[in-house]
Amino acid sequence: MKVQRRHFLCLGAGAAVLSAASRVARAGTYPSRPVRVVVGFAAGGGTDVVARLTGQWLSERFGQSFVVENRTGAGSNIATEAVVNAPADGYTLLLANTANTVNVSLYNRLNFDFIRDIAPVAALLRAPNVMLINPSFPAASSVTAFIAYARANPGTVNMGSGGNGGPVHMAGELFKMMAGVNLVHVPYRGEALAITDLLAGQLQVVFGSLSSSIGYVKSGRLRALAVTGATRSEALPEVPVMADFVPGYEMSTWYGIGAPNKTPAAIIDRLNAETNAVLADPAFKARLSDFGGAVIGGPPSAMAQLVAEETAKWARVVKFAGIQPI
After folding, report:
1. Entry pTM
2. pLDDT exceeds 90 at position 290
3. What average pLDDT does the segment 141-153 reach?
4. pLDDT tens column, 12-63
């Protein structure tokens, strides 16, 4: 009986080794078909631009297409839920960003738990937003003039965003809270749509991403009053930081890649390694110049830590600003 038991143990150990070998083999052939990268915001916005740029580089490294799919609505929750419910095989990824960590406290009921249900793959970059004004706005000369006007005319200045809880929205809410101004939030189904209405004069301010607005700023169609990061942006070196006018203000949008929970570790590790290689590529870094941000990179655990820190930060902002959960 003892001999027989040892025989079964050997068989069990062998099966475990074969199973592990099978997982490695599957990861070695991954991806064998196109990979979907789901984005929760409309085409043309910062998250979409990051997804397409990263997807292009990953496609070249893997020799397989990384196709961006825009699924807008509910501050990226629709896109996130679609990824949560997708097969955990590495063929459906999420381009996550600040909105995902805001939504934890902004929404009363979600059909998923972002931290539990989305496995971190790799943190991509941090980038500041920029306070954008239509040049025809009466107080378009400086942040100080804008604040004075907004305080003198409460509830008359329209602030556009790419959707509730998105980075553009939260950058504006943080400004409202810290500057003591009453702006009317007007959410759109994507940042690009808000920029379009800002250009048309239907909005007065958008705290937009550099990637979606820098062309308009350089052409003079929009005016950049301040960047929201801790330091000036190399993309717009002449534009001051918001903290020069609102002491202590700092907001940077982060971007990262996530996958459905239970995606094989070998596939996540391979995606992480290739993504870090992309982030280290000088040509890729050069393409990021319009974002005015910095690459993050590192192991999946680095993204997990970033998500935890950002979730705690925005929970405090949502509570302090009195933003009602949706």
Report:
1. 0.78
2. no
3. 97
4. 555 544 444 444 445 679 999 999 999 998 888 888 989 999 999 999 999 9
- Segments in the chain forming alpha helices (H): 2-29, 46-62, 77-84, 98-106, 114-117, 143-152, 167-179, 191-199, 210-219, 265-280, 282-287, 300-321
CA dist 149 and 15 (Å) reads 72
Q: Whole-angstrom Cα distance, residue 103 to residue 317?
A: 12
Domains of the chain: 32-127+252-321 (3.40.190.150), 128-244 (3.40.190.10)
| CB within 8 Å of 212: residues ≥ 6 apart | 44, 45, 46, 49, 191, 192, 195
Distances (CA, A) of 110 to 99, 149, 201, 209, 216: 14, 38, 35, 26, 36
C-alpha closest to that of 126 among 24, 9, 256, 287: 256
Q: Closest Cα to residue 130, out of 245, 21, 291, 320?
A: 291
C-alpha distances in Å from residue 151, one per residue of 169, 170, 199 = 19, 20, 23
What pLDDT is recorded for position 164? Answer: 77
User: Cα torsion for 100, 123, 193, 198, to the nearest 10°?
Assistant: 100
